[in-house]
Amino acid sequence: MTLKRVNIGLLGLGTVGGGTLNVLVRNAEEISRRTGNELRVTCAAAKSYDPQQLDGIADVSVYDDAQQVVSDPDVDIVVELIGGYSPAREFVLEAIRHGKHVVTANKALIATHGEEIFAAARDKGVTVAFEAAVAGGIPIIKTLREGLAANRIEWIAGIINGTGNFILSEMRDKGRDFSDVLQEAQQLGYAEVDPTFDVEGIDAAHKLAIMASLAFGMPLKFDETFTEGITRIEPRDVTYAGELGYRIKHLGITKRTAAGVELRVHPTLIPEGRLLANVNGVMNAVLVKSDMVGPTLYYGAGAGSLPTASAVVADIIDVARTMDCPESRVPCQGFQDGAIEDIPVVPMDEIETSYYLRLSVRDVPGVMAEISTLLANAGISIEAMHQYESHSENGRVPLVMLTHHMREKVMNETIRQLELLDVVEGEVVRIRMEHLS
């Protein structure tokens, strides 16, 4: 078999960039059998790297300046693995202007500048691939764009940030405090020195915006995604949820409704019997509900050098296969360019879900009756209510309630009224619930 050579330029030789080089070198024979091409990294840009950890680095020209890779006339595919918004955006657009295909693992870049990048790629007739931008080694992008293309997707719920999932798993299994587990996550390399993107849900929101665009054929709407982190979750909330038959997960949820598309990231109670509730540690999982297949679950490593590099190389293979046959390429967002619809995002106030509420109430007779009356007047139906008498502190006890479905704005007003009651002290803790049925 005569192999056509495809030259690759890497931007970044860190965790994922180094992993990508290693995968291409170690599995070169298998990749050639699949593609009919010889995929070779000819150049890379990196400020620093460890040559002892990189297979085949002696055959790669390494530059300090990424511009040298982007403008190299012999490079067919530029792989952007430096992350962040800038200068990644500028390098990607410059590569496209030079007529090069682009592969990226940069979810922040795609979620915020994807529309601009896709338009530039269409104008130049090149491909932008981004499988590794969501859920690491899990092929969820290909699943949404191709595997489920015959379906009308109804909703997606995913654990798409391993750091947050590790923290919540440790809090449940060992009763540890959030801050304690976060510190360990940083020591283990699961969380950055500044963990804001992970624990406040921004990283998950980037990924959710991308999945929603692919699922529903809509523009990327990261800026309209409701985002709530896990920093206020306490070990007792994890314990109480477990006693009621639920587990707390930090979910990204998007749903197609008559009013538009829901886009929300927040801590969520889900029944402990659901497969998604049993995804632990740093693992990721995405549950997709579509009309023909029903629910399908995708589970695996959401980060790490080789799992993420696996997704990057899969994109490189896809691009190489279609370089000489552009009409066979799958559109970036999975829908034909003229078929992308500007579907509105449903305001969070209009979302309907169930709720877990924890109140600190005075340990006196009549409290339950007073609170029940307020809830009844608001039209709120209670699924379960439990007062923890044994946990009394300074004359106060925790009162935990699970509600049935209601609109978010009704719950917001109800919480405001609850906090005005003399028998309620401090803020009411609210965690949304989803049954994923």
Write the layout of secondary structure elements.
Layout: E1 4-11, H1 15-26, H2 28-35, E2 37-45, E3 61-63, H3 66-70, E4 77-80, H4 88-97, E5 101-104, H5 107-124, E6 128-129, H6 140-147, E7 153-159, H7 162-174, H8 178-187, H9 196-199, H10 202-216, E8 226-227, H11 235-243, E9 246-257, E10 260-271, E11 283-290, E12 294-301, H12 305-322, E13 352-362, H13 367-377, E14 382-387, E15 396-403, E16 406-407, H14 408-420, E17 424-433
Parallel strand pairs: 1-2, 1-4, 2-3, 4-5, 5-6, 8-10, 10-17
Antiparallel strand pairs: 7-9, 7-11, 9-10, 11-12, 13-15, 13-16, 13-17, 14-15
Find the structural class using helix and strand composition. alpha/beta
Low-pLDDT residue intervals, each spanning 5 or more residues: none
* Number of beta strands: 17
CATH architecture name of the largest domain: 3-Layer(aba) Sandwich
Into which percentage range does the β-strand content fall?
25-35%
CATH class category label of the largest domain: Alpha Beta
Helix run count: 14
Shape, principal axes of CA atoms: elongated
Q: Rg, please? A: 24 Å
Determine the N-to-C terminus distance. 50 Å
> Residue-averaged pLDDT, rounded?
95
Reported for the largest beta sheet, the result is: 11 strands, mixed
- Whole-number tally of structural domains: 3
CATH topology of the largest domain: Rossmann fold
